[in-house]
Each structure stands twice: as structure tokens, then as C-alpha cells.
Write a structure and sequence with these properties.
Layout (H helix, E strand, L loop, with lengths): L1 H34 L19 E5 H5 L12 E9 L4 E12 L11 E14 L4 E8 L13 E11 L2 E4 L9 E6 L20 H20 L3 E4 L2
Parallel strand pairs: 4-9
Antiparallel strand pairs: 1-8, 2-3, 3-4, 4-5, 5-6, 6-7, 7-8
Length: 232
């Protein structure tokens, strides 16, 4: 009888957790749809020369002190955290993984990329007062919480000092928040699994065209020598 009561209590608890997580899940989805303002076909004003898309932006701490990290361990680096803007209004936070290097130089000289980690997908819009509005969608890496916290909307902005320097408003406190431009060629397009979501598009035809492109890109990335990892 005691076991039976404990079993019933467990089932009740599990049901409450499941109901709660379902409510949180639906709330998160609705929240990101209602609070987001940017759509891909609304970001086609391009960059207008405000920022550069022929490379990446990297926090100046990593550029000046490549062996530095927040935990105080000084060692050569084999991965680079950076921000990538695309002409179509797409924004990525990237992790580039490869061979060990001692410094970050233009064109990432001496660094051979082996794995590209796309940490989140975002949309951006350049305003006339040199401010870049960014809406990015990210997901908790812990498997258990992916059901509780699906892709969430994160709003941020960059102040453009010039086309080679931008300042992140809500930056990680252990970093400078000042991002400097490094010209380089990254083997990646603006395609991403989450970009297929209907609410991100106002133009149905444009979305269908993107889905056709994404289908081809997925096949190409599977055959690529570089490994592509998404936060899914």
C-alpha cells in the first residue's frame, strides 16, 4: 500500500511537471513571435557600408591577447569566437575550431578551420544613427532544458564606431565588448535550420525559395571537409 501511494504521488508529480513544462514551452514560443520585430524580407536594405560582411568581428581582448581567457589560463588558442554579418540581414555568433595559433591576424593567417559552430541565428537592421539592432534566437545547450526553453529571443544592439569597430551594448562582462573587424573568408553561407520558421518571413515565396536553397546547402555541408555544428 505504501509503495502504491508513493507511485501515485510520483505520477502526479510527473504530470504536474509535464503540464508546467508544456505551458512554459508554449509561452516561450509565443513570446519570441510577439516580441520580435525583424523579418528577413524586411532587412534587405543591406548594410549600406555601415558594417563589413567580408570577414568577422572579434572581441579586441582575443585579438590583442589571444592567449588570454576569462579563467586566467594563458595558452595558444585553437578556437575563435566571433560575430558574422551577412548581406541578407542574417547574423551569426560563431565558434571557429581548428589548429593551434598564437595570434589572430588578418585573413586568419595560419589558422585552418576544421569545425564551424553556429551558436545562434539572428537578424539585424542598421539604423541611420549608426546603431545595429540584433534579434537572435538561441537555445540552452543542456538537453534536459531544451524542452523547457526552446529557442528564445534575445535582443541586443551594437554601436558602430566605424566600419572596423563596433561596440556591443550587452556584452559578456569578462570581455571588452569592443569588436574589431578581421577580414577573412569563412566557408559558410547564411543558411540555418531555425531560419526555416514561418514567423520569420513575411514573404511566403521568399521562404519557399530559401527552403529550396537550404535543402541543397544541407547536402553540401554534409560532404564538406569542415564539420558544421548547430545549436539545435
Amino acid at each position: 500500500m505504501v509503495f502504491h501511494n508513493k507511485y501515485n504521488t510520483f505520477l502526479l508529480y510527473a504530470a504536474i511537471c509535464l503540464l508546467t513544462s508544456s505551458c512554459v514551452y508554449l509561452e516561450r514560443i509565443q513570446d519570441r513571435k510577439e516580441k520580435s520585430q525583424l523579418r528577413f524580407d524586411d532587412c534587405l536594405e543591406k548594410t549600406d557600408g555601415i558594417i563589413r560582411t567580408d570577414g568577422v568581428y572579434i572581441d579586441e581582448y582575443y585579438v590583442k591577447y589571444p592567449k588570454w581567457n576569462p579563467w586566467g589560463v594563458f595558452e595558444p588558442i585553437d578556437n575563435i569566437s566571433c560575430v558574422k554579418f551577412f548581406e541578407d540581414g542574417t547574423f551569426f555568433n560563431l565558434g571557429l575550431h581548428g589548429n593551434v595559433i598564437d595570434s589572430i591576424r588578418p585573413w586568419l593567417e595560419g589558422f585552418d578551420i576544421e569545425r564551424i559552430q553556429i551558436r545562434d541565428l539572428g537578424l539585424y537592421s542598421c539604423s541611420k544613427n549608426n546603431v545595429i539592432r540584433v534579434e537572435s534566437y538561441w537555445q540552452n545547450d543542456i538537453l534536459l532544458f531544451r524542452h523547457l526553453f526552446p529557442y528564445q529571443l534575445y535582443v541586443d544592439s551594437f554601436l558602430v564606431y566605424n566600419d572596423s569597430v563596433i561596440i556591443e551594448k550587452r556584452h559578456n562582462p569578462v570581455l571588452s565588448g569592443t569588436l574589431v573587424f578581421i577580414p577573412c573568408s569563412i566557408p559558410i553561407t547564411s543558411h540555418h535550420p531555425f531560419k526555416s520558421k514561418r514567423f520569420l518571413w513575411n514573404d511566403k515565396k521568399a521562404r519557399k525559395q530559401y527552403l529550396r536553397e537550404w535543402k541543397k546547402i544541407k547536402k553540401e555541408r554534409k560532404k564538406s571537409k569542415n564539420k558544421y555544428v548547430y545549436r539545435e
